[in-house]
Design goal:
Blueprint: H1 5-28, H2 38-64
Length: about 60
């Protein structure tokens, strides 16, 4: 099974772009409040960072084989 990590990164980037737009839209419509719920904001940022790091780890392991 060959993994194309550039494609995986692109799909992940598009997902997080759409998720970020959705969160900002909900914040503007006052469905959620990022100013009062900093845990949500930092949680999303941390999960976003970790998801890209996981892809890098798998890419590094695949290149070592």
């Amino acid at each position: 099974m060959v993994m194309d990590f550039k494609r995986i990164n692109m799909i992940l980037s598009i997902f997080w772009l759409l998720a970020s737009i959705g969160i900002i839209y909900l914040d503007v419509k006052q469905v959620i409040s990022l100013t009062r719920n900093t845990g949500l904001f930092f949680g999303v940022v941390i999960v976003m960072f970790l998801s890209f790091q996981v892809v890098k780890i798998f890419e590094k392991r695949a290149s070592q084989k």
